[in-house]
Amino acid sequence: MTRVLLLFTVALFFLLSQTTLLPMLLPHYFKPELLLLLVVYLCLTEEVVRGACLAWGIGLLLDSCGGTHFGLHATIYLSIFIIGRSSVQALNTESPLLLLVMVFCASLLQSGLLILFGIFADLQRLFPLLLQRATFQGSINVLTAFMLITLIAALQRRFSPRLVIPGFAHLRTEIHGA
Amino acid sequence: MRELFEKYWRPFALGLLLIASLSYYSSHLRHKDAPSPIERQLLTLTYPLQKSVMLGKDGIAAVRVNLFGASDATIQRLHNENAQLKEQLVAHSELKQENERLKLLLSFRAQREEPMVAARVIGVDATSWFRSITIDRGSAEAIREGMAVVSAYGVVGRVVTTTPHSSRVLLLVDAASKLSTLIERTRARAICRGDGDSMSLDYLPLTDDVQVGDLLITSGLGGTFPKGLIVGAVTRVDKGGFDMFQSVEVEPAVDFEHLEEVLVILSKVSPSPLPGDKP
């Protein structure tokens, strides 16, 4: 329960960053999707049913501050979690850079699912933009994931070397080769 | 049967959750003009956080201006004074810009007959693909869903969700946005729709005269936006191809990336669907 609350607090902080903090610092076209990174992290570390519920909840949180179709991102994040989780079982999780590759794939998958579910919501006008920017957005998300992991690793080393973040030590080792 | 369920309960639960999520999404699609209570609750939850970040930003700016005190050493003092003056200059320039923006808003408000409420932008859309903003005024200030939002430069969008102290505004450039407009020079009528990043005109016949630079204003149809508000200017006209209608691109009059204050028009008329709307 504590872990769920902690993840929810992180999601809330990420949402606040996406809507208020980052737009003050970054140009409008550079918009990292922090909540998507959190969903990918859930894919790698969380228990299946609890992770799915969390991914859906994070999607609802995003829907409350983004887009006009409530439930759209919740469905997309849940689908990404299910697909991601199934892939993790088939992939070699010890492979380096797994998280970054998964973030890129999740970004592309999100665009694809937006097109799929957007058909029902009369969002056809968004499709050219989605196709045009999907790779760019994926690259932004990968860069953000890399920076975030580096930052968390540095903070952990500096302030609390004994702290264990579930799944994180493994990812950090894989990405930084430490 | 029980053994089978015990073995596959996880995929079963995931499938059930996915079906529930899709059903919830599809039910909301049918009632998209009425925001769900969960949406309101979540927006209410995020409002104090967004507001406190904005207040924090203002506070930091004020502290930065006031912190630079004089030192005993002359060089240090001069350095400090210089820094202080620079900070004050930046702060004054910021205040001057804010003053000018508010003056523009006030003069715009004085020109219009409709009652309006001024609001501050406290957040932008959380996604990369949709375009909306969150403002710090809500149903406590008589703001309702469907009301028009404008700035001194033109139309901004319309309110889609309200909570007691905050509202979400769908911007004109969002792919779900549409608005009945008139070309000011020729009075030709067309539906202006958002493309995610820009806008374009729908259903403008090939015979209608439209040129690059033509100004677009609201037609007043639909009941949401009063007639005569500036929407944008035509930037490209394409009459080629075999379509019945010409392809026209429009640049919005408002710079949505640097929007800080807006006005909400407190209309009493309930909006009726646009000609292009689906039933």
Record the SSE blueprint.
The complex is a heterodimer of chains A (about 180) and B (about 280).
Chain A: H1 2-25, H2 34-45, H3 48-65, H4 72-90, H5 98-118, H6 127-159, H7 168-176
Helix pairs in contact in A: 1-3, 2-3, 2-4, 2-5, 3-4, 4-5, 5-6, 6-7
Chain B: H1 2-30, H2 37-67, H3 74-111, E1 116-124, E2 132-135, E3 148-151, E4 154-162, E5 167-171, E6 178-183, E7 189-194, E8 199-202, E9 215-218, E10 230-238, E11 247-252, E12 261-265
Antiparallel strand pairs in B: 1-2, 1-12, 2-5, 3-4, 3-12, 4-5, 6-7, 6-9, 7-8, 8-11, 9-10, 10-11
Helix pairs in contact in B: 2-3
Tell me what you see in this structure.
Chain A has helices at residues 2-25, 34-45, 48-65, 72-90, 98-118, 127-159, 168-176. Chain A is mainly alpha-helical. Chain A has one domain (2-176): Orthogonal Bundle (Arp2/3 complex 21 kDa subunit ARPC3). Chain A is globular, with a radius of gyration of 16 Å. The model of chain A has no long low-confidence stretch (mean pLDDT 84). Chain B folds into two domains: 37-122 and 131-170, no CATH class; 178-254, Rod shape-determining protein MreC, domain 2 (Thrombin, subunit H, Beta Barrel). By secondary structure, chain B is an alpha+beta fold. In chain B, strand 10 (230-238) and strand 11 form a beta hairpin. Chain B has three helices and twelve strands. In chain B, strands 1-2-5-4-3-12 form a six-stranded antiparallel beta barrel. A six-stranded antiparallel beta barrel of chain B has the order 6-7-8-11-10-9.
The DSSP helix count of chain A reads 7
Question: Can you write the helix and strand succession of chain B as a string?
Answer: HHHEEEEEEEEEEEE
CATH class annotation of chain A? Mainly Alpha
The helical percent of chain A reads: over 70%
Largest sheet of chain A: none
List keywords for this structure.
heterodimer, A: 178 residues, mainly alpha, Arp2/3 complex 21 kDa subunit ARPC3, 76% helix, globular, B: 279 residues, alpha+beta, Thrombin, subunit H, 2 domains, 6-stranded antiparallel beta barrel, 6-stranded antiparallel barrel, 25% strand, disordered C terminus
